[in-house]
Design goal:
alpha+beta, 6-stranded mixed β-sheet, binds protoporphyrin IX containing FE
Amino acid sequence: MTIASTPHTDIDLFSDDILTDPYPAYATLRDMGAAVHLNRIDAWALPRYEHIRAALHDWETFSSEAAVGLNDVVNGFLVGTVLGTDPPEHDKLRSVLSAQLAPRALQKVKAGIEAGADTLVDDLVHRGQFDAVTDLAAALPLSVVFDLIGLPEHARGDMLRWADGTFTVFGPMNERTQHGLTVIEEMFAWLGTLRAEGLKPGSMGRAIFDAAEAGVIAQDSCVPLLAAYTTAGMDTTINAIANAVQLFATHPDQWDTLRGNPDLTPSAFNEILRYDSPVQAFARKLTREVTIDDVHLPAGARVVLLYGSGNRDERHYPNPDSFDIHRNPVDHLTFGYGTHTCAGQALAKIEAHAILRALATRVRRIHIGDPKRHYNNVIRGLESLPVVHLDLNQ
Ligand code: HEM
């Protein structure tokens, strides 16, 4: 079958217009077919839930090996990283920190994170007006991740810019990617100066260097692993929290439901993640030809897994565009699925649940001004979200 007779489009998923609101374009792609050729970047989009999940499950066909980004430069950077390798190499890299990020191990940091969320929210409630992105959503993940990885504090001021660059370079080689590449060079140069002794004893950062010392991983893997675990826990969690504030400010009935039933917090957070996935897309490369429904994809093709579209697929979720905290979509695609499923999801949940609970016990109504969107090739989130007034619980 030729491209002319298969679903294809000139749509630019990475343009400002589409990034502002990608959901109409996603709906069009889902209706066009199970796989749609994106002519501008010579890649195939998988827009439907069922096929994205199946692809994530089949790493042998949908390989991550230097293939998660949509340009060759970033894929070069990803060689030998946890995100950019297939088993068995992947499993070795992932094993270094997986136990420390498991829910049971995180129990020992949970109370500290909840106390941090309470103090932060108390302070912001007292102020009354603040920015939900910079003052609220960014503050907790930044301090939690720095603490867990044991990074020296002086890099805090640069980390958000570095994390933003790290994600945007996963896109095609557009202006955003080109700028992001200069930003991440800076980050890798800094990470390259770190030594085990410079990281807090008992931290995850130390565990990475210890694993290299013990010969479990190569010395060369230390910096990529540090980069992956540090940046992966920033913009993702930050945008999830900021999206939560925006969604509850604009859906006061849902906020009342949560305040009346705090046990719904995990369900509410799942719905927040489904509704507006902080990671909209990652890519894979086909190791063999496949036919998805009637669409034939050749071996070697680049495939874009549109998590954000799968989460709004009406074939899987009834009324996908409505925000409903009773839905509890535990099977959303926002953390990926299968081999590369998010290694830090238990941590992200502890942080977000803590913020939601701290807000719900204090705040009856959140009043916001105009949000400003942040443009990143793969991360969906806000630059700023002014909270102009809070009505407090009696
Ligand atoms: C709401 C917050 C988060 C979201 C939406 C998110 C999303 C994702 C997604 C979609 C993947 C799968 C990548 C793929 O399919 O190729 C992933 C992987 C990963 N995440 Fe997260 N993440 C979040 C928080 C975190 C945190 C807090 C950490 C660690 C501190 C983290 C560490 C990682 C790592 C290391 C991987 C790579 C796993 C592998 O390749 O085996 N993430 N994340």
